Amino acid sequence: KEYGCHVIVSNVSKSTVKTDLLLQIPVGALPLSGGFFTESRYLELAPNNTETICYYFYFPRSDDKPFSHFPAQASKNEKVIASAETGSLQVVDKLKVADTHSWSYFAHSASDDELVKFLSTTNLHSPKIHLSDISHRMSSKRLFSAVTKLLREKFIHHDELWA
């Protein structure tokens, strides 16, 4: 199964920010889509601007112990200026109980009709909703039409979904 990570970097200041980002996939994972194990990126972010960096990976096996995932780190002059919290991922062969109320369920497992209904009744500006999580489902013309119509009605544009 493919997993993805979205790193969102915002500059809320009035001046351009120049920073180095350190990105890593979780321990035990393998990169996908021309990805990387560890990567450093230089980022120049204009005032009041945000950039999202996405990368994808998979786990070749499940394990009883969680896999560590070290956070993205932003640094300037070789000092860390921002970092997310360290986390871990439990990889299982099959979920024991599906959380049918979570965004992950709707993005990856729900029927097309369930997904469209969820999108129509949910605050799509919530930080828990990442519309790029459903981009892999946009190859269905019927779903693509329904989702883009709904987003148009809500005045939401998402480049990855229209691509």
Give the strand content: 25-35%
Flag low-confidence runs: none
Question: In total, how many beta strands?
Answer: 9
- So how many helices? 4
C-alpha-based Rg, rounded: 18 Å
Structural class: alpha+beta
Could you spell the SSE succession in H and E letters?
EEEEEEEEEHHHH
In round numbers, the mean pLDDT is: 89
Percent of residues in helices: 10-25%
Can you summarize the main beta sheet?
4 strands, antiparallel
Biggest sheet, spatial arrangement of strands: 4-2-7-8
How would you characterize this protein structure?
This protein has helices at residues 103-108, 112-121, 141-153, 159-162; strands at residues 3-11, 17-24, 30-31, 38-45, 49-58, 67-69, 73-76, 79-83, 87-89. The model has no long low-confidence stretch (mean pLDDT 89). It is α+β, with helices and mostly antiparallel strands. Helix 2 runs parallel beside helix 3.
Quick overview of this protein structure:
This protein is of the alpha+beta class. Helices cover 20% and strands 32% of the residues.
Properties at a glance:
4-stranded antiparallel β-sheet; 32% strand; 163 residues; alpha+beta; 4 helices
Q: Which helices and strands occur, and which strands form pairs?
A:
Elements: E1 3-11, E2 17-24, E3 30-31, E4 38-45, E5 49-58, E6 67-69, E7 73-76, E8 79-83, E9 87-89, H1 103-108, H2 112-121, H3 141-153, H4 159-162
Antiparallel strand pairs: 1-5, 2-4, 2-7, 3-5, 6-9, 7-8
